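Bit of a strange request maybe. I'm writing a small parser for structure token strings and I need a real example to test against, not something I typed by hand. Could someone generate the tokens for this chain?
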Amino acid sequence: MLNSLRLYAKFFIMTLPGPERRFLWLDMERYVLRPGVFRSIPQYSSEIRRESLDKGAGWLLEAQKAAGDGGMGSYHLVNKWSSSYPETTGYIIPTLIDYGGKFNKPEVLEAAVRAADFLLGIQKESGGWQGGRVNENKPEIVFNTGQVIRGMMAAYEHTGDSKYIDSAARAGDWLCKIQHPEGFWKSHALMNEARVYDTYVDAPLLHLAEITGKKKYRDATVKNLDWVTENKLLQNGWCEDCDNTVRRNDKPILHTIAYTLEGLIDCSRWLKDEKYLQAAIPGASVLCDLFLQQGILNGRYDHHWKGREHFICTGGAQMAIVWLKLFWLSREERFRLAAGRMIDLLIFIQRRFRDEKPETLGAIPGSFPLWGRYEPFAFPNWATKFFCDALMLEEEMK
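Reply from user aminoacidic:
Good idea to test on real output. This should exercise your parser:
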């Protein structure tokens, strides 16, 4: 608690006197002085949605330019640009390829390939990829490796170059080797704790299994999915062992809840097995109903779905994706409605200043308001990635 207070004191003291104070005043006006604003967010037009997508994708390229090594970091109002983050660079690659292909932007496709080549150059001898930022040179982590596999698969399908699929297969072999016999990952997991959000590792493993024909990737995935669905999901849809901390594992963040749900939905599609889809629906439904009632979501939820902490923008964008996929499968109108309103909320948050600098133009913050506990005073690249994904998926489903 004391360390947290010191950190927040530092950020507020360093931000208030500088040009960054505009961000604080804006969120103060929008969040504190207008508490009912979430029920009156405008429904933005398709033109503004496209403008928001272009700005978001443009900011991802700005992040790559700032990193200088082909990867992408994040921007903090006080600490400025971080070094590249291999995990999120990995799953930004499919976003850039999707955007660049849809809108005929060769420079964006080239950026995606540069990112993939950066990740090839830092793959560990084991086949995994490190945790944390690249300058920290940490050991391999299961979840991070799964997300880089996403990037390698996308780069392979875009270029046809076997070096990317070979790299993904090395990573997949490592994940199979270190998996616990009961189906979870604990060795080389974050905090060395088994977590259910590794369903978001399972989906790229299934993609890898389909491309390579290697059954062991599929088998590893099914073991993990069954461990999750048979042991860790409550009847109300809440997930045990879902947080990326130990101390607050009883009330996981929206971000990792959304990872878990989307992983289940995607794996259901890859495996053509309805039980994983059915496992995702209760939790997604509760959050859908809460959002439609309140106009915003909390950052954390306990096992009664009682919320606390400020909205996590990343998790909001991810839930829009979850709801869009469920709408596509079920045609339940509430899922489409919730996804559209969530995207409207994120566009509202994104639209700040006419004269905004490139470091933040188009970026989605970690929390709303900016001083929320998740990535405070920062613009994590993964928030903008999921925002762009949500916008493109929404357009596809029209």
